């Protein structure tokens, strides 16, 4: 499990220099002296240990959540990342179900590789080395994977310096091939980029053009989110609420793990007829933090929509002035753990 440590006031996380057990061979993604990680939202480096528990160095890190995975039942997901040219990186992916509990998935690394099972995948990448992790479906559903496993992926990337971490750009790709031609890529929701209101623009005519939403709860309380739709004149055209989405899972000692995630067609949330043409959809969590993903399906094609910071209707707040406060939800290993094994080139 990973941990989130929060100041309850403002939900700003406490950084912790916890020891991480690492192999001391292969790609070296740590520095022998603590690097300056302060440009990463004031972060402190974490200590890196070998399999014997001896500290071999220190790493900066960046972390975030892919808020929705779909694996099995005709869908597959893949996560791609490459180490920047500047240095090696360590990679750790952990899988959770829609309630924020551990999810065991069958995965592959690269083409033609053997299948592994578990709720965690970790490895190290040399400079410029890419990797793709394929998510096949729930281990309990093998080998046919007839049902679609959904949930989230928590990702941590360890680097010997802040610049390298700042240049890590992972992506998750959904595919429904060959049954349907949908294949689309979505970005990660970094822990430094959480907010309370989000908006996107889409078209949903109930036919070939459909919009779907994913809302990931980044709060310590179960939360129901208000979804509003505005038509082409800016007038409110419909309002709906989501079911309660499970909160961050408590791990003890004031720390929290993964939250719940909810995915649905927009028309499942808004019961009234959606407006014709392009409209704005606003996801409002009140004071509760979240990450939001919006997808546009257009018959034989699909794409991820741009989702931006917004503010609640009628509020006097200016989201633009605080949207980059770098609200950090730092998660660190609660026990010694070998995170990143070397990937063969």
From the N-terminal CA to the C-terminal CA, the straight-line distance is: 29 Å
**Series of H and E elements:** EEEEEEEEEEEEHEEEEEEEEEEHEEEEHE
Computed CA radius of gyration, to the nearest angstrom = 20 Å
Q: Helical segment tally?
A: 3
Q: Determine the fraction of residues in helical runs and give it as a percent range.
A: under 10%
Low-confidence stretches: 1-19, 318-339
- Strand portion, in percent? 35-45%
Written account of the structure:
The chain is mainly beta and about 350 residues long. The chain folds into 2 domains: about 200 residues, no CATH class; about 120 residues, Hypothetical Protein Tm1070, Chain: A, CATH 2.60.290. The chain is about 5% helix and about 45% strand. The protein has 3 helices and 27 strands. Strands 3, 4, 5, 7, 10, 12, 15 and 27 form an 8-stranded mixed sheet that branches. The chain has a 6-stranded antiparallel sheet with strand order 9-8-11-6-13-14, with no helix packed on it. The chain has a 5-stranded antiparallel sheet with strand order 19-18-23-16-26, with no helix packed on it. It is globular and about 60 Å long. The N terminus is likely disordered.
């Amino acid at each position: 499990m990973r941990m989130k440590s929060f100041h309850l006031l403002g939900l700003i996380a406490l950084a912790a220099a916890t020891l991480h057990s690492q192999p001391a061979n292969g790609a070296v993604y740590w520095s022998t002296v603590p690097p300056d990680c302060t440009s990463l939202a004031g972060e402190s480096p974490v200590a890196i240990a070998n399999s014997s528990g001896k500290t071999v160095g220190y790493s900066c890190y960046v972390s975030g959540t892919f808020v929705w995975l779909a694996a099995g039942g005709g869908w597959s997901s893949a996560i791609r990342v490459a180490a920047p040219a500047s240095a090696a990186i360590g990679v750790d992916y952990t899988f959770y179900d829609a309630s924020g509990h551990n999810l065991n998935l069958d995965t592959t690394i690269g083409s033609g590789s053997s299948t592994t099972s578990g709720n965690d995948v970790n490895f190290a990448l040399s400079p410029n080395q890419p990797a793709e992790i394929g998510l096949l479906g729930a281990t309990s559903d093998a080998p046919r994977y007839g049902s679609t496993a959904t949930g989230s992926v928590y990702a941590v990337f360890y680097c010997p310096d802040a610049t390298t971490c700042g240049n890590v750009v992972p992506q998750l790709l959904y595919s429904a091939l060959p049954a349907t031609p949908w294949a689309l890529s979505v970005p990660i929701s970094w822990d430094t980029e959480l907010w309370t209101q989000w908006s996107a623009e889409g078209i949903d005519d109930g036919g070939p053009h459909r919009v779907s939403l994913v809302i990931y709860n980044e709060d310590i309380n179960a939360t129901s989110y208000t979804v509003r739709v505005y038509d082409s004149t800016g007038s409110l055209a419909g309002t709906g609420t989501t079911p309660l989405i499970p909160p961050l899972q408590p791990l003890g000692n004031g720390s929290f793990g993964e939250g719940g995630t909810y995915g649905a067609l927009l028309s499942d949330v808004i019961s009234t007829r959606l407006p014709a043409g392009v409209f704005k959809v606003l996801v409002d969590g009140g004071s509760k933090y979240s990450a939001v993903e919006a997808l546009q399906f257009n018959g034989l094609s699909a794409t991820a929509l741009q989702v931006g910071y917004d503010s609640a209707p009628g509020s006097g707040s200016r989201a633009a002035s605080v949207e980059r406060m770098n609200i950090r939800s730092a998660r660190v290993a609660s026990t010694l753990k070998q995170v990143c094994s070397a990937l063969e080139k």
